[in-house]
Each structure stands twice: as structure tokens, then as C-alpha cells.
């Protein structure tokens, strides 16, 4: 009888404690290496990043964007040297612009023109010239579909600091 009374008491306590509904938060986890894909809406804007260093190198040689897309490019000079010695910029050239001819004209234009010749007639868009540790951001609309060259217009840099800006 004592056992039965104890069992009834314990049952009453358990039932009384379990009367509250607890809400469990369910979290979805995604493991690295999974084959599950996430879908996102196509955006009419994109952010891209580019860096240049004291070894006269960009960290990327190619970008792919969509025609008419708003592009926000963040350009960073990861080196330590001053812009008078090792300045870098991003210059997106118009189709048909000869890089060697443009580079010679950039040298002639000089620092006063921020190394951009002819008021930028052969340029779609460009950043300002940066020294080590500096960063700048520009926003522009991607041109029509095609393959465009981008370079650094600091004297002598375009031989190594160049890439393709592909618009699909």
C-alpha cells in the first residue's frame, strides 16, 4: 500500500510539472561540403573587391558581371609604399583601347592628372591613385556585354597589373 501511495504521489508530481507546453526552436544547419544549394534572387547590383600590392600585382585577373548591373568596386592597396613610388588604381578601358598606347599617354599625363590621359576619353571608370594601406570604393553601371581590359595606369605598371572585366 505504501508503494502504491508513493507511486500515485510521484505520478501526480510528474503530471503537474509537465503541464506547460514548451516551444522548441528548430534551427536549420548546413554542413560544409554538403550538396544542398540555396537559391537567391538575382540582384541588379553586385559588390566586387580588388587589391594591389607592392609587387605590382592585382589579386584577381578576371571579373564576371551582368550587363546593366550596378557594380560597387572596393579597391585596396595592400602594400606599404607611398603612391608617389608605388601608386595603384583600377582603370576600366573602353573597347579597342590599346593598353601600351594608353600607358604611355598616362605617363605623359602625370601625377597632376592622376595618371589618366586625355581627361579619361578612353576610360569607362577609374579609381583614384592609392598608396600603401589606402582603400577606395566606386560605384558604376556595367557596360554592355563584352570583354574589357582593366589596368593600373601608374607608369610601368600596366605590363603586370592588368585583367579582364567580362560583362555577360
Task: Sum this structure up briefly.
By secondary structure, the protein is an alpha/beta fold. It is 18% helix and 27% strand.
Which architecture would the CATH scheme give at its second level? Sandwich
Query: What is the overall silhouette?
Result: globular
Which structural class fits the helix and strand makeup?
Answer: alpha/beta
Summed up, the helix count is 3
Map the helices and strands.
Elements: H1 2-17, E1 45-52, E2 62-65, E3 70-77, H2 83-86, E4 91-93, H3 99-109, E5 123-126, E6 135-141, E7 146-151, E8 162-167
Parallel strand pairs: 1-3, 2-8
Antiparallel strand pairs: 3-6, 4-5, 4-7, 7-8
Description:
The protein is an alpha/beta fold and 168 residues long. The termini are far apart. It has helices at 2-17, 83-86, 99-109, and strands at residues 45-52, 62-65, 70-77, 91-93, 123-126, 135-141, 146-151, 162-167. It has a single domain, classed as Immunoglobulin-like (Sandwich). The protein has three helices and eight strands, in the order αβββαβαββββ. The longest helix has 16 residues, at 2-17. The strands form two sheets. The protein has a five-stranded mixed β-sheet with strand order 2-8-7-4-5, with no helix packed on it. A three-stranded mixed β-sheet has the order 1-3-6, with no helix packed on it.
Characteristic terms for this protein:
single chain; 168 residues; alpha/beta; Immunoglobulin-like; 5-stranded mixed β-sheet; 3-stranded mixed β-sheet; 3 helices; 8 strands; globular
